[in-house]
Design a protein that fits this description.
310 residues; alpha/beta; FAD/NAD(P)-binding domain; five-stranded parallel β-sheet; four-stranded antiparallel β-sheet; 25% helix
């Protein structure tokens, strides 16, 4: 949305191709106050999405909701695109430049694909991955035993939130804590108070659901084993970029990506193919945030203005 707005102001006619039913991406699922955005404090993710999308629509930018890019061909003038809009409708577009802003998804493969018993637990709703899903069920977790899997910021935030409601909170960290110091300190205080029990260097070997709850056996490098029992599990295992679709889009399959799948870009958000740009979380593994994504959009729009008019 940021890139489209800047592009419009720089004299272009941007088209937003959005597979969802509304603009906003992950903002639509982050129902927590975002205190990081300068000048507009006190807004939740959905509120920010509405604010941004209203601005885009007020600018009469061409937005294609429920649409997917299905074909890309490089031409002398730029690109020839085929977009699927609905089940049986397709549209052809031409473009001088393409901007990829497909964001991230939660990384569940390390658990669901590798740990016995994980998939049935996930299908039952007792194991979940989205970083803020615990907020909606806080009241229902009153007095329950919970486990949080992960060592980063999101795992620590979740453990901190749950410690105020749950009867007991386990924090399961496969290697070592990776949270920022100020976030880590908050959880360490809860550990000292006995409200959070941390299991560092613990490897989950399975999930076993029974009448008494969910049994989670843990193994350590020194072959010591233990088992905990909980009522609900929240996995905070990080994110992966939404870039797999590129393999089916002809010309775009050649985009350079790093070993984790993030699109490689230069300082101006140019990707490895001419007149292709990538912005936001899909190209920014180090600083995924709304603020960085908005800034990326402005930078890419200005890069496009320089490149196509040379």
């Amino acid at each position: 949305m940021s890139c489209a707005l800047w592009s419009k102001r720089l004299g272009f006619s941007p088209v937003l191709i959005e597979p969802g039913t509304a603009l906003g991406g992950q903002l639509l699922e982050i129902n927590r106050i975002n205190r990081w955005i300068l000048g507009i404090p006190g807004r939740t993710g959905p509120a920010l999405a509405e604010l941004y999308s209203t601005h885009v629509l007020d600018e009469a930018i061409d937005v294609r909701l429920g649409a997917r890019l299905v074909s890309v061909m490089a031409e002398d003038f730029g690109f020839s695109l085929v977009v699927r809009e609905g089940e049986n409708c397709t549209a052809s577009l031409s473009a001088q430049a393409l901007v990829i802003a497909t964001g991230l998804r939660v990384n569940s493969s390390d658990i669901l694909g590798l740990i016995p018993g994980a998939l049935p637990l996930y299908e039952s709703g007792l194991l979940s991955f989205f970083p803020l899903d615990h907020l909606e069920s806080m009241e229902a977790l009153e007095g329950k035993r919970v486990a949080v899997i992960g060592g980063g910021d999101n795992a620590h935030f979740t453990a901190r939130d749950l410690a105020s409601r749950a009867a007991f909170t386990h924090l399961l960290i496969r290697s070592r804590p990776r949270a920022q110091p100020v976030v880590r300190q908050e959880v360490e205080a809860l550990i000292r108070q006995g409200r959070v029990l941390e299991h560092s260097g613990a490897r989950i070997t399975g999930f076993h659901q029974g009448s008494g709850g969910i049994a989670v056996p843990l193994a350590r490098n020194d072959s010591d084993t233990e088992q905990i029992e909980v009522d609900r599990i929240f996995a905070r295992t990080g994110f992966a970029p939404n870039t797999e679709f590129l393999a089916g889009l002809g010309h775009l399959a050649g985009l350079e990506r790093n070993h984790d799948g993030y699109v490689r870009v230069d300082a101006w958000k140019r990707a490895s193919l001419s007149f292709v740009y990538a912005i936001g979380d899909v190209a920014n593994p180090d600083y995924p945030s709304v603020v960085a994504a908005v800034a990326d959009g402005a930078v890419a729009a200005q890069a496009i203005a320089r490149d196509v008019r040379v």
